[in-house]
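INTERNAL AUDIT FORM
Audit reference: QA-55
Scope: verify that the stored structure record matches its stored sequence.
Auditor: D.O.
Record contents follow.
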Amino acid sequence: MSYNDFNSLFGLGGNDNSLFGGLSTSLSDYNMIRSGVYGKLLKSYYSTANKMSSDSDDGAKSANKSPIKKAEVREYKYNLKVNQGMQEVKSSSESLSKAAEALNKSSLYENKVAEDGTVKDSRASVKSAVKNFISAYNSYVGSTGSSNSSSIQSQNLEVLKAVSANSKDLAEIGITIDKKGNLVMDEEKFDKADMSKIKALFEGNDSFGKKVGDIAQQTYRTAKSATYSANGGSSYSSSGDYSSLGNANQILDQIL
């Protein structure tokens, strides 16, 4: 007896002439139950159903072990790692861009006059802003230096070149480069540095700080593009040009 025969016999296929459907009126069916034939058929039915389910599970396990499935898992893990790396680059580059922007405001370097007429020196505020810049810079160099993106690696190199080109001026205000390539502040030397030299390094369109901030903003756009392009979103090229990819949602693009 086949699997379909069992379905028909027990009414599982919606057949009104099944064993269960005619049980109340069929004496022969009643005798089948009393004689134990029904029990044997029931066991046989579930044995067949369980075998089909087991075969299906074995097929799924076999598919999970296939070379194609393994390759898909490897690709997924790789893409997840790359995406996490891009998120770190995006975060660090945004922080560096904002830190550079804060140092580029001329008002930061102006002494403040309190209501009682006393003058508050701007040095403390400038020092805090420079510390934020150094912290953001070090995070940026770490995340971009380990990126698999050639564009981001190139931008990392541009920032390192900018630091190298201004290393002498930076050293004069107490900022040096350690063995790991991170910026380090000598606070005592910074406190004694000429404020005009500090301002010259970080304020103005041609300053060191502005150059680094512009590169960081470029890196942010590159990382943002890499994060969303797979979903058909908007993209920024490495030069900062904007383009729309695929069928992007324009309102979402403006928010992102």
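Auditor finding: record pair retrieved intact. The beta strands are 112-113, 119-120, 175-177, 183-185, 234-236, 242-244.
Action required: none
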